[in-house]
């Protein structure tokens, strides 16, 4: 099993010296895309609303943890990096809707800019 230990250490050394982006490439594309949906509000006329959403793909990868990470946390054998397609800025889209009690002014949020950014866990 000594050979597999040496191979594992060589692989860890390799990953600690080389940036994974150089091997995997930095493939990223997060773009605005129109998203239309039917809006139904009680006692108002239904209408279709188009706002911008973000869609695309961003870089993610997992590598064997470098030596310094293993020293701090021996149980973390793998280090992962991931980015997700995110809305970075929004703008308001205002509409006027006809309702039984008159007109209502509504505001919807729409994506103004999109980018690859760290993924959030909620």
TrEMBL record:
Signal peptide limits: 1-20
Keywords, ordered alphabetically: Signal
Record keyword Cell division present: no
Presence of the UniProt keyword Signal in the record: yes
Superkingdom in the source lineage: Eukaryota
Protein name, as recorded: Putative glycoprotein hormone-alpha2
Organism, scientific name: Ixodes scapularis
